[in-house]
């Protein structure tokens, strides 16, 4: 019997299953912007020798075994079936980036929706060898979320790349240790006790409101939430914003908060500006952002090899939970000071992060999966995100410049697809730059205006911060 199913491998993780269920089929898209045109003849060898060996799942499909459980089954991969190289019409003025920007944007819209064939491993690579404003060539990785979460897939992607200055050295990442631990170690016992108690209470109420949100509380319909059911099957469009990490660090130091607080505060402020501009009344509407987190309790990235070692079993895969954060409202007069937005956001995140609800939600998802199966959990996640307005996730990228087979990588961004919400925001750092990618419902959200509003928020908040003379210790 064993021999018979010799090819059938490890079971598909529960999280992996809900990323391919009837309610949800989610893909992670990674974009590499190359400084020079790509030599297409390198593509197949790279796929064969570097990409496919990364993880057995890249050469497996999902099958139901005799007991009805989903398992990964190894198959023979034909790399050429997974490689897409679009041909655009020649432009008369071949240096016209704007025209190709438009072609690329339409092409990306066309591949964002849609499943990859189910009888083949669940990934595709698209090579767009045309110049855009940002790049001479854009390489797109389309990977089913069932293969792993953003973290696993990111480390997979990065293991195909080398450091530009010295390929023999590993890429490094900004240190990510949460400050909480060091602070926590310093405070005295009494404070620790208060901390534990307050975190206990805020957990209970967060946990309650998370469940409530999936069951009954719905965000208002606003310029950022259409309220249509089934929005995920409609076309989305991508736009992106590039921020200087040094500028953000400057603001962070002035305000005495974290980089995350600054960026989240800026995005929330930008979203409210957009809402206000679209419809004055909605600047005070109830709108929630769901922030996806991964629950791995480790610092920076691990190499894929390390992740797959038996002793770090379980690192590869999907380990996620989420926080629900109400987007601060524009109504309070004190919010005329944009910096209040950052501090406000910081308070909200701090309270939520400190609570155990992140882990409770992860636990609940696991439990529901065991008791009721992946379809139910998929529905919970779908209902939660669908009843919120904005979904945000972030990934930390390397500090050094990278190359892909000697092609320098100028920029890096990512996005994820197929949830019910209308605005999906993903953030990644690379070298000295933060890239914010906005994935918005085409036709419903004015992506140019939203982008403009967030850029304006960045400007307004940076300027306000620079006017502060001393470091504010406001908490
Ligand atoms: C993914 O989900 C769809 C819809 O439930 C199903 O038809 C398909 O067979 C699934 N794919 C795999 C590989 O299980
Ligand atoms: C980001 O925006 C630039 C400029 O509009 C564009 O050229 C590029 O293709 C965009 N990248 C993605 C991944 O959408
Ligand atoms: C927002 O929710 C609160 C209760 O949570 C409610 O009292 C208030 O009326 C809501 N605001 C709007 C604009 O719907
Ligand atoms: C999700 O919403 C649907 C209604 O669209 C409802 O039938 C279902 O019970 C909800 N699922 C969960 C797990 O809350
Ligand atoms: C949101 O909550 C309502 C219940 O108020 C539910 O019927 C609906 O299916 C949920 N999900 C979405 C995606 O709207
Ligand atoms: C938004 O991104 C999350 C992951 O951050 C993903 O799970 C979800 O399906 C995405 N939704 C849409 C509509 O793209």
TrEMBL record:
The O-acyltransferase WSD1 C-terminal domain, residue ranges: 316-461
Pathway: Lipid metabolism; Glycerolipid metabolism; triacylglycerol biosynthesis
Catalysed reactions, semicolon-separated: an acyl-CoA + a 1,2-diacyl-sn-glycerol = a triacyl-sn-glycerol + CoA; a long chain fatty alcohol + a fatty acyl-CoA = a long-chain alcohol wax ester + CoA
Sorted UniProt keywords: Acyltransferase, Endoplasmic reticulum, Transferase
The protein's enzyme class: transferase
Gene Ontology biological process terms in this record: triglyceride biosynthetic process
A GO molecular-function descriptor: O-acyltransferase activity
UniProt cross-references to Pfam families, sorted A to Z: WS_DGAT_C (PF06974), WS_DGAT_cat (PF03007)
Family: In the N-terminal section; belongs to the long-chain O-acyltransferase family.
Protein name, UniProt field: O-acyltransferase WSD1-like protein
Species: Medicago truncatula (Barrel medic)
Name of the gene this protein is made from: 11445485
